[in-house]
């Protein structure tokens, strides 16, 4: 029964072969994988092949019929091996036929387009064997000594006998060089991965950024072929030799250890022009002058000339000259790291730049601190640009020495543009009513304002003051009086102080503009350490919030005094002078006068002459005016006592007009601050 089923199956397969024109031997392997071996042993395949199957026992082999014409293939224990053996025999016959016809057949010339030419060139220059698949055109044998031995002749394949025109030859050479460059990049990448232990991504990024070094390796590898020991060597071996001799991989590892990015590594290696040892020497020299971290790479890349081509003696001479003119040795790394253009200057140019500033009246100490504060001032700007900016600063009424002192104090002025920064700011100050003298004072007191962005920093603060009701002229006076106002943060400093005055200090909305205009320095005070303690002290004296607001509106400096200086004055007012608190509320400026030099001496004179004045009339005048008032008061009392005048004719404090009171802005007020 089993045999009948097997015969029926093979009959069905033979019918399929006839229908689809398929050789039965091609399906034999498939049949062997799905059919039991016992069925295959008894199959009669003689009608579709030229071989027969026999048993594999020794007895059957001994009794083999030698008269049989067809070759005998003996079964070897497994039916699957039979199909493999058949296919192997067919491949051998096919290869034999190809070898016999290869000598007589010469492929005709064929036209190959540019893209296929490039592919063929790349095949001829590959560094390793590409994986082959069954049916591949260029099968590579495992016994090939070189890739070229298993590839067809490129010139025969292209059908070229060397008679092409020159343009085609140049095109082929250019493509060959490009492919050779790709091969060299692959060799460099392989060296980074295998010897440097870098990741494939990092190695690719570095290789893509060292194009000039790739060309250097190609040229040196081609030059090595002239040497006898490399005359028979392949290009790959010579390229690896050049890479190893240049210490490329250790240098990349060393640069990465010093926190160089692969972008900077690529640029620095290209700058070396193949002399990679100069990179390590230059970095070691930069460390001797205290250049640290990322600024080592900045010193390489931002120098206008190639510093790798300069000798160490030239660089040492520049450093020693700067050190002799006030730039300390431990500052040198900071200066060079932020102004690497110095390393590309000749010694004569460095001397001329240093003399340019020394002739403005600077001493060596001022010059050294100026260079340390802003290293770009020494090497970033041209002489014409610096001369133009100095001439513009002199238009404010400054002398050459004044400009020198100004640059020594704020050298960042040299980095500001006249057209983009200074002229718009000057026009804006004119709009606020600031005179030329006022601009000069702002420049001298706070020169950083001339380096500040007008639209982002200054204009928003001016608009804030305008919204408070302060006129433009008053705003201009505020800026001239207290230029630091424009350097304070609007949202972290100015607005919180204004809110504190309105909500905690009792200042009304109609008086807030007046308070800020009279004392803009109030906006620079700290709420926690200055304004809040002062406010609490006045409240502790019995002054109410609304009264304190009126006192601040009358005398805004009240909140800026030191509380320790206020206590003895208050005790003297209450205990010695026996004055009520209302007198202090009416005249808060009392705290601005010196206790030892004005309050006590004048109170003593009043006691000796038995006269009395309000605090305003007692203190807010000069010594001569005070003596005149005391004298008039004494004479009036004597006439009254003599009966010459009635009591109503006694001069009183109210008879003295406010116009007669001279408000003193003497240094006595300022010494009580802080």
Walk me through the structure.
There is one protein chain. The protein is mainly alpha-helical and 674 residues long. The protein has a domain of 95 residues. The chain is 60% helix and 1% strand. It has 36 helices and two strands. A two-stranded parallel ribbon has the order 1-2. Helix 4 links the parallel strand 1 and strand 2. The chain is elongated. The termini are far apart. About 13% of the residues have low confidence.
Short overview:
This protein has helices at 2-20, 28-34, 37-41, 58-62, 80-102, 114-124, 154-158, 166-194, 200-208, 211-224, 235-245, 248-257, 262-271, 277-288, 295-301, 312-324, 332-338, 347-358, 364-373, 376-379, 383-394, 400-409, 418-431, 436-445, 454-467, 472-481, 490-503, 509-518, 527-540, 545-554, 563-576, 581-586, 595-608, 615-619, 623-642, 667-670; strands at residues 52-54, 72-74. By secondary structure, the chain is mainly α.
């Amino acid at each position: 029964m089993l045999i009948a089923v097997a015969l029926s199956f093979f009959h069905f397969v033979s019918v399929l072969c006839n229908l689809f024109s398929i050789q039965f031997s091609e399906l034999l392997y498939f049949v062997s994988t799905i059919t039991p071996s016992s069925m295959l042993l008894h199959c009669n395949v003689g009608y579709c092949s030229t071989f027969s199957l026999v048993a594999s026992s020794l007895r059957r082999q001994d009794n083999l019929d030698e008269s049989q014409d067809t070759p005998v293939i003996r079964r070897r224990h497994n039916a699957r091996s039979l199909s493999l053996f058949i296919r192997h025999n067919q491949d051998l016959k096919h290869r034999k036929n190809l070898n016999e016809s290869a000598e007589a057949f010469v492929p005709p010339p064929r036209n190959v387009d540019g893209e296929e030419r490039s592919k063929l060139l790349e095949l001829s220059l590959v560094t390793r064997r590409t994986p082959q698949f069954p049916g591949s055109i260029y099968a590579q044998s495992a016994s090939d000594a070189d890739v070229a031995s298993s590839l067809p002749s490129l010139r025969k394949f292209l059908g070229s006998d060397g008679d092409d025109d020159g343009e085609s030859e140049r095109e082929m050479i250019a493509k060959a060089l490009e492919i050779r460059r790709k091969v060299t990049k692959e060799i460099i990448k392989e060296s980074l991965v295998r010897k440097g232990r870098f990741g494939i991504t990092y190695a690719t990024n570095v290789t893509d950024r060292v194009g000039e070094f790739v060309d250097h390796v190609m040229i040196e590898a081609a030059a090595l072929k002239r040497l006898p020991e490399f005359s028979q060597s392949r290009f790959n071996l010579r390229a690896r030799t050049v890479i190893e001799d240049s210490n490329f991989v250790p240098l990349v590892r060393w640069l990465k250890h010093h926190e160089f990015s692969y972008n900077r590594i690529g640029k620095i290696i290209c700058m070396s022009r193949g002399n990679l040892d100069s990179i390590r020497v230059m970095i070691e020299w930069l460390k001797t002058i205290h250049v640290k971290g990322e600024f080592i790479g900045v010193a390489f890349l931002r120098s206008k000339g190639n510093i790798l081509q300069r000798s160490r003696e030239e660089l040492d001479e520049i450093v020693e000259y700067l050190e002799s003119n006030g730039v300390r040795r431990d500052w040198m790394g900071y200066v060079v790291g932020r102004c690497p253009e110095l390393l590309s200057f000749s010694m004569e140019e460095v001397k001329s730049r240093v003399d340019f500033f020394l002739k403005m009246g600077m001493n060596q100490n001022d010059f050294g601190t100026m260079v340390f504060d802003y290293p770009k001032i020494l090497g970033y700007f041209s002489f014409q640009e610096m001369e133009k900016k100095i001439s513009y600063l002199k238009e404010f009424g400054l002398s050459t020495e004044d400009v020198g002192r100004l640059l020594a104090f704020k050298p960042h002025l040299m980095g500001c543009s006249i057209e983009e920064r200074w002229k718009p700011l000057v026009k804006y100050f004119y709009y606020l009513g600031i005179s030329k003298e006022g601009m000069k004072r702002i420049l001298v007191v706070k020169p950083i304002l001339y380096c500040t962005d007008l639209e982002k920093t200054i204009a928003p603060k001016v608009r804030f003051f305008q919204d408070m009701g302060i006129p433009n002229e008053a705003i201009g006076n505020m800026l001239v009086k207290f230029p630091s106002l424009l350097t304070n943060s609007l949202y972290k400093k100015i607005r919180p102080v204004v809110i504190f005055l309105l909500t905690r200090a009792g200042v009304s909305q109609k008086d807030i503009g007046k308070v800020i205009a009279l004392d803009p320095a109030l906006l620079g005070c700290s709420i926690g350490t200055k304004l809040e303690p002062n406010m609490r002290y006045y409240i502790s004296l019995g002054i109410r919030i609304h009264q304190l607001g009126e006192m601040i509106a009358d005398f805004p400096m009240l909140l800026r005094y030191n509380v320790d200086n206020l206590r003895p004055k208050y005790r003297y007012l209450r205990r010695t002078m026996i004055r009520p608190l209302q007198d202090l509320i009416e005249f808060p400026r009392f705290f601005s006068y010196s206790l030892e030099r004005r309050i006590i001496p004048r109170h003593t004179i009043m006691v000796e002459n038995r006269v009395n004045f309000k605090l305003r009339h007692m203190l807010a005048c000069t010594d001569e005016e005070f003596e005149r008032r005391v004298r008039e008061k004494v004479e009036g009392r004597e006439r009254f006592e003599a009966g010459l005048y009635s009591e109503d004719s006694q001069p009183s404090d109210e008879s003295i007009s406010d116009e007669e009171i001279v408000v003193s802005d003497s240094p006595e007020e300022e010494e009580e601050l802080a």
